[in-house]
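Summary for the steering committee. The consortium agreed at its last meeting that each partner would contribute one worked example illustrating the joint modelling workflow. Our contribution is presented below. We chose a case with several input lines so that the handling of multiple components could be demonstrated. No manual editing was applied between input and output; the record is shown as generated.
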Amino acid sequence: MKTFFLTLVSLTLISAGALAESPNERVHVLQKRDYSVKNKIEVGGLFAMSVDDIFTQHYAGVLTLDYHIDEAFALEFTWLSCKIPFYMGDKVSDDPAAYTGGWLRSGHSYTDAYYNIKDDAQLSPSNADLAMISNYWGLNVEFSPIYGKFSLFNWGLARADFYVTAGGGVVTTEYMRPDKSWVDTGLYFMGSFGMGFRIFLARWFAIRLDMRDLTFAAKVEGEAGATGTTTETKIRSTLFVMLGVSFLFGGEEPVQIWSPY
Amino acid sequence: MRKIISIIFALAVLPGALAFAQGNKSDQLNQAVEAYNANNLADAAKQFYDVKMNDPQAGNRAQAEYYLAQSLFKMGMYQSALAFYNAVFVAGPAHPYYIKGAEGLVNVAQALHDDTLIPSQINKYYNSQEFAKMDPMILSRINFYVGLLLYRQEKYGESMAFLSAIDQKSRVFAKGLFLQAIIHIRLGVRYNLARDEARTQAEYDQAIKLFEQIVDLSGREEAKAMKAIASYDNIVRLWQLCTLNQARAYYGKGDYAKAVMYYTRIPKFSQDWADALFEMGWAYFMREEYGRALGALHTLHSPRYNNLFAPESWILKATIYFHVCLYEEASAALNFFNQRYESMLPTLKGILDAGLPNEKFASLLLLDKLDKADPMAKVPELVRLSILTSPRVENFRHFLRSLEAEAKAIEQVGEWKGTRLRDELAGVVTVQRNLLVRTAGGFVKANLQNRYQTILGFVGHAKMVKLEITSHERLLLKAGLSIKAEERGKLAPRPNVPDETYNYWPFKEEYWRDELGYYVYTVRRACPAK
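What follows is the complete predicted structure of the assembly.
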């Protein structure tokens, strides 16, 4: 896949002298990579937004730390945070004001759909559907089988790696009761699958665009019965789109032969 | 009687008058020197010229002549200065400023970027005994110029003698070493043609040693290289040329692997890259790495080098195809050669046979825009560009610009208005300009002839390859085999990616700038089994 997404205008100059392609030969390009990620540490900062939940909306900051084992495989630690942990309130609080952490709080919100159902139809979605991710710490394996490059109006070339990622980690979620009190559901396992690509603008700098599907079993308070409140569990998955930048450090520097050029 | 009295009177008075005139001239010389020391150069030049022309004392005239040249040199009127330095120099050791005149000539040669006319003048009057008294740095430069001149005349032994006499501290020391290395290469080629293997190898080894010595001046690291840059003329370019010529020397020795190693050190898009690609094509061909050879030529035939004059590259391409029995492809390459290069021959011949004087050729080199009526406007673009890329072109242009600026400057000096000095200097510049135009024209003409002969030579090669193709196709038919290569053999598999630091891309008729230089062909193995 030489070019993907945008190959608006590449250096597609056809030589006046080029001969018609012959069935008796093939032309290949064996290009020494301009950059190598092997043994490099990549630190990334991304902005994430959930895109598929009906009732919840997440905005998150994401910190990634990748170690590139070779050109194709990397291990990645991810911290996705919609609110700063251990900062805003206790585990269960009946006082919603305790959770009002200013702008940090705004990583969580319910959608208009939730308020429409709740206010207009006098209905309430299940608590499991209202659970929102607060923080996720995970480890992923990243595999980059596809590389590409593109050029936009001949402004130069950008290289890109397309990758898939899978892994898991722990997550904290919380939800708001109908009485507007917040419930922190505690820490439990979450799976992560995704894909993305990084566009290298320099050997040490890249732009990253990711999609991550975070899947978890939301454990929340169920219906109140005679014997007390039951626990309801529901598999929830939230798709995040992330955009950010990353910086690469270390790795093997190319051997420089002294050159007068 | 009255007559006798008059004569006696005249004889009595004359020595006094002469002494008065002499005193007057000596005063003028002193005034001129004072003006010179006060940096009032136009006035000094005017007075020195007057002394030079009118002073009865030879010593004064000689001094004035030299300082006139010095004044003009300091005013940046190099061509005018040259005329008087030359007069001093040509007068020989009897002139009290002979050595200084020679030094002046060297300084003018440097200022005018002239490596032809002045060196040839110095060589003509070279006096080793007298020159030994000269500043060793100036003498080294003279030795370099003379060495260069003799090298161009293919007098390699004599040239070597001058070049090896260059002082190690001289700014032209590295240039001298480089020229010696090039002479060894030339001798290597000569012995190779004479099939003297031992001497061929010895010459190339000597050349490689000298190239290494030049590169060693850099210390092979940036910090030390900066010191060398401050000490030697054009050293960076010499280092670059050393890489290319080391590759050539190894090629000459038949060590194609090392030749390729040095060729690949020449960075992409540098001014030597096209040469390196073409010669690398040959080196791969000699190693029978046909896919890589064709790959190198693929870059050379890409749009980046659309305007490159490279007729031989198409002959090489055809030869490679011929070697792998891809006759259709070989014929296509030859047809392309014919269409692109052979078609130029009638035009070039027309220009060369038109009996134009040398001056008429100069416009190709000296003018940025050619008038349609100018015969040089008919020169095919590829040929014109190939001539303009010669480093000597910039020297010619620099010389011309300098002469034009000097002519203007002479006009504008107020002190010289209406003087003989101005007329003489204007005349000198005009004569030199005419000479330059003739020389530049001669250079262009020689180059056009060279291009014509080059193409003509390869037309002959092309015909030979075509003949071979026809006879091989006949053999195929006789053996009952198909002429079509695709019916004769298998297409080689795509090349292996050496390691993960390489990216593989298929070539789909798109030239990506970053891919130039990385092409590899796989071809059908179409030669019948023997």
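Residues 1-22 of chain B have pLDDT under 50 and may be disordered. The first helix of chain B runs from residue 2 to 37.
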